[in-house]
Write a structure and sequence with these properties.
Blueprint: E1 18-23, H1 31-34, E2 39-45, E3 53-59, E4 62-70, H2 71-80, H3 84-92, E5 94-98, H4 102-112, H5 117-141, H6 145-166, H7 175-180, H8 184-195, H9 200-215, H10 219-222, H11 224-230, E6 237-238, H12 239-243, H13 255-264, E7 269-271, E8 285-287
Parallel strand pairs: 2-4
Antiparallel strand pairs: 1-2, 1-5, 3-4, 6-8, 7-8
Helix pairs in contact: 5-6, 5-9, 6-8, 6-9, 8-9
Length: 289
């Protein structure tokens, strides 16, 4: 039973789908989120017009931090890897209330890393990997080696996540500890990039070369979600239609670049064909066999 009133709730306010409480273990300091609070509480709603809200409260001598958010926002964190600590506490906390079973269902999806969650996370990680890889290549061409190093490290981080997802392992807060036991190749590249005695330029070039040959070979597998969307209708898609598709909402920024890369690799088709001469402006559309 929920022991908190949460400051009272008006009759016209929506009822939360569920409540998850994460208690501070042993009364000790436990990271930046719990800080000196006794409990971190998630109040999860189906919809919210205000977005996530944070409240600090005290009730019956118990200090707690209250986070009110939409279930959709929580799912977005799970797919995109945002707010890893919050996701960790949500998964580890006690389910105080679960009105229709959605909270436990979502936690089981993450724990078992089931579809469609796994497919969405795989495509997201590949899109972010590609973004940082292209960024690193541009920095190297322009002679900005430190910026190239930073972008390469981020692309390698997403590569590590790709490896974990393909092994049905949900990436948590400690990616490199996870990947060390599951992909010697990626972990070795991380060590070479971070700790090798070679010059910074040589280290970056080595990892970027490995990215080009290893991860690019997995492009078809990693972009299965997009291919499935393209095949879902007979009429080719405009890029704007793809950006607005609900299944692709987590990669809206990277989607144009990913689509063009897939065209270049002949994994999807564009209409009209590049060799067709047309003297009038025409919208490019995309399809997949």
């Amino acid at each position: 039973m929920n022991p908190f009133t949460f400051g009272g709730r008006n009759a016209d306010e929506p009822v939360p789908l569920g409540i998850v409480a994460c208690h501070r273990p042993g009364g000790t300091f436990h990271g930046a989120l719990l800080q000196d609070f006794d409990i971190l509480i998630f109040l999860i709603y189906e919809k919210s017009e205000t977005g996530m809200q944070t409240h600090h409260r005290v009730e019956n001598g118990v200090h707690y931090q209250l986070l009110s958010l939409q279930a959709g926002e929580l799912r977005r964190w799970i797919v995109t890897g945002e707010n890893r600590s919050l996701v960790h506490y949500f998964l580890q906390g006690e389910v105080v209330d679960d009105m229709n079973g959605q909270i436990l269902h979502l936690r089981k999806q993450v724990e078992r890393f089931e579809q469609p969650l796994r497919e969405q996370r795989l495509f997201f990680e590949f899109a972010r990997f590609l973004h940082h890889y292209v960024e690193a290549k541009r920095h190297m061409t322009e002679g900005h080696e430190m910026d190239a190093y930073y972008s390469t490290l981020k692309s390698l981080h997403h590569w590590a996540c790709i490896e974990l997802v393909q092994q049905s392992v949900y990436p948590d807060k400690t990616i490199w500890n996870q990947i060390r036991a599951r992909s010697a190749q990626v972990y070795k590249l991380y060590e070479q990039l971070a700790f090798s005695q070679e010059t910074l330029r040589e280290r970056v070039e080595l990892v970027l070369l490995a990215c080009e040959f290893s991860v690019m070979s997995k492009m078809a597998d990693c972009t299965g979600l997009l291919i499935r969307v393209l095949r879902s209708r007979r009429v080719p898609w405009t890029i704007e239609e793809l950006i607005r598709h609900p299944d692709l909402r987590y990669v809206q920024r990277e989607l144009p670049m990913v689509v063009r890369k897939l065209v270049y690799r002949s994994l999807i088709k564009q209409w009209p064909r590049e060799n067709k001469r047309n003297f009038q402006s025409e919208e490019i559309r995309y399809s997949a066999d």
